[in-house]
Amino acid sequence: MTAVPTHARAEAVPAGDVLVLNLGGVWQITQPQPNWRKVLGDRRPHAVRLAVEGLERWDSSLVRFVREVEGWCRAAGVSCDTTALPETVRRLVDQLARTQEERRPASRSPNFLAGVGLIATGLLRQTRDFADFVGECTLSASGLLRHPGRFRWRDCLSEMQQCGAMAVPIVSLSSFLVGLTLAYTGAIILRQFGGDIWVADIVGLSTFREMGAVMTGVVLAGRTGAAFAAQLGNMKAGEEIDALETLGIAPVEFLVLPRLLALTLMTPLLVMYANCLGIFGGMVVSATVLDIPPSAYWIESQTIIGLSDVSVSLIKSLIFGMLVAVAGCLRGLQADRSAAGVGRAATSAVVTSILLIIVADAVFAVLFNALGI
Amino acid sequence: MNGNPDLSVMPADSGSGPPAIGVENLECRYGDTVVLSGVTFAVQAGELFFVIGGSGCGKSTLLRHLVGLMTPARGTVRFSGEDFIQADVVARRNLLKTFGVLYQSAALWSSMTLGENVALPLEQYTTLNRRERGEIVALKLAQVGLAGFEDHFPAELSGGMRKRAGLARALALDPRIVFFDEPSAGLDPVTSRKLDELILQIRETFGTTMIIVSHELASIYALADRVIMLDHEAQGIIATGRPRELAASSDDPRVREFLSREEEKA
């Protein structure tokens, strides 16, 4: 072990009008250092001379201290003599002084108007990118219809397993609980009119026409959309996408289409399953809280849920699945080549998916109403 | 150009005392696979020390053990005589701030600007305020030739600039030891030579001890005071010495072959 190092010292010794500042000890940036203002106290010297006395070791902390003394001297209009310092120290102090002079005001953010303009053009560009991407997917898909042998079935199947079968537990839980809550909420009002049995109608209709597809869509956006974005974003950061392109393989055909098809096929299945569990959730509440036997609940459900409701659910789920897959893949392919970029891509994929699901759901509501479905 | 710089005014515990790094009988393994065993060497303060060898010989593994990312199966690593392997949490933290590491890919934190990258060690280990930290950051970036790049993100820089920024971060606390993992990897010869010059310049200014893992012969001949050569089959050091002397007079054909391959170019 080396001896305990002496701390950094800066002792002010007045010599007439001149203040001699003796620097010594071990100057280490990770250790406490003297404070120039405290060393100076209320003295107002006409000149400052820096001297070295028992200086054992030093680093940037000494350079910074000397620079601070120099800066104070300049501001106070007194001369500062650093000639007694080691040459390396003086060189570094000069370098630090230069960086401070050259330092530009570091505001790189644009003003308000420019900011609004940038956001607007950014939105426009994003919309165009999205449309481009959808177009590219459509073209690739139609190309594959002509050459189905080129499609990556193996990838598609494994994606189906990932985004379909593996999502069953979380979809089960969320849809069962949504059915449960719907039944409780419905019962509060219906009980007042003695119409307990209509809980089955409320749960059945709202599950099939809205909640099943929307809830599953949101779950898939968080689960699968984010996974697509993170995976593709990471592949982009690792130049894997570039490697595909230079081999003449379109990333959309190779990476996006299998995922798109997998999620588009799996979402309707998951939504139908979610619908059933939602009804089951309602049935459990009815049987335990409202004393409606499951058979009565079942018969009532059958009378209210028609083929149109099932098809509404199917159409919605098909579109939601597609939207989540497109948003996830697009954001992944757009990701910046860095860890932060991949993180942003995953976040943005979830936000975009959920936004698209909500917008699409509203459009469906208007459309189905107009068509009388 | 080789040989220790004038350290009379500069720190670095020159002279007697324990070596800057002392490695004794180190055994490195992944699970049951022994990569290195019986590795013993010492690096003197202010020395430019190269760990060389072909791909897969365990250079990077050795480095990961030296900086504490992996725990050796056996042996000791001492920094200025202090045991790093057996150190408790406090002692380990104190030792960690005495060295800096420049990773192969620079490993800058991508969500932070260069300024923030360099400032983070200062925030963690010093009592400097924001303005003072800013000054040190500016100085460090200027030292590596990146003055004024504080607000840039790593993704906005070229590979060479990222390496230099990584070096600025490794130097933030003015460590007495800096480890380099393949500093020239992925750089063109000109950029790589500039980085070599920077390494020399920093050693001359601060008397920093440098341990460099590399297989770039140009850098080895230009910089190294001393090298150790590792070998995959020998699972350890097969040669120690000055690179030119080893190339000229080593008894081991593997060493001569490695070092003479491109000597004429260097």
Account of the 3D structure:
The complex is a heterodimer of chains A (373) and B (266). Chain A has twelve helices and four strands, in the order ββαβαβαααααααααα. Chain A has 373 residues and is α/β, with parallel strands linked by helices. Chain A has two domains: 94 residues, 2-Layer Sandwich (Transcription Regulator spoIIAA), CATH 3.30.750.24; 239 residues, no CATH class. A four-stranded mixed beta sheet of chain A has the order 1-2-3-4. In chain A, helix 1 links the parallel strand 2 and strand 3. The longest helix of chain A has 39 residues. Chain A is elongated. Chain A starts with 8 loop residues before the first strand and ends with a helix. Chain B is an alpha/beta fold. Chain B has two domains: 169 residues, Rossmann fold (3-Layer(aba) Sandwich), CATH 3.40.50.300; 69 residues, no CATH class. Chain B has a six-stranded mixed beta sheet, sandwiched between helices. A four-stranded antiparallel beta sheet of chain B has the order 2-1-4-5, covered by helices on one side. The longest helix of chain B is centred in the last third of the chain and has 18 residues. Chain B starts with 20 loop residues before the first strand and ends in a 6-residue tail after the last helix. In chain B, 46% of the residues are buried. The N terminus of chain B is likely disordered. Chains A and B meet through strand 3, helix 2, helix 3 and helix 12 of A and helix 4 of B.
